Known about the structure:
alpha+beta, Aminopeptidase, 2 domains, 13-stranded mixed β-sheet, 9 helices, 13 strands
Amino acid sequence: MIRPNGEGIRDILPSDEATILRLADNAPFVHLHPDYSTFEDWLASPAALIQTRDDSVRGLLVAHFDPPPIAWLRVVVVDQHEAAYPLRKLIAAARERLQDTDAQLLACLSSGRWLDEELPQFGFTVGQEIMGMEWEPSFRPQSHKARRSVSKPNLTIRKVHAGDFAKLVEIEHAAFDDPLWWSSQKQMERAAQGAVNFDVVELDGEMVGFTFGAWTGRREAHIVRIAVVPTARGRGIGAALLDNALRQYEAESFQYVTLNTQVDNAVAHRLYERFGFKTTGDRFSIWVLPVE
């Protein structure tokens, strides 16, 4: 897709990795939303695209879906004074490339005001609003008060095993009816390799939920997921998972723990507040656009 004036869209190539890193460090408009994919995984996506002008890279976009039907905008970089024109071209090309795939929806967890301003121009709408919450050791008195009620004799919390992941994917899909929150088995296995904790909960010997956290600093963690199947809710299982994770973080002298939750998930808010989490004031939009 090359035009006579030297402007065009092409696939990202293995040789572009250094250029991508340079642009990500220096371009005026940058969105990075990494998951557990590799650069090689991104290359395999039909929507891993570079915009060129006069043989110079001016923008790039990676829309990766693992699993479908959500193709997340993992990388968006525009190395121009105005983002609108190149972004419009890249998004249009990505949608075209995704037409014959299992991807049904483009999604973007906004990482900057510039995306919030640009994406509505191209038809994106807000699919979810996310808020940040934080926990620190100074909040522990309230946390310990909540812990008196989470001990359950028929619950077992253990470290994840290699053979658990297929079942955990089923649990996650059951726990979240919106595919925006789904992981693939490969992504979940990779998450476990570098997780600060990855724990599974069993109710009467059956796996019904899990949680894991990621390192964000030397003594900082981010709780990525707490998932419980709908049939097991209301029994204190989410509280038991959260309690177990915080105990591990305390044992490791963690100083700061964060998590994100939907703005409209009042049940989750009450749980986190019981354990001493406080809102950070951070808000993020998840923008969505149908592929078709």
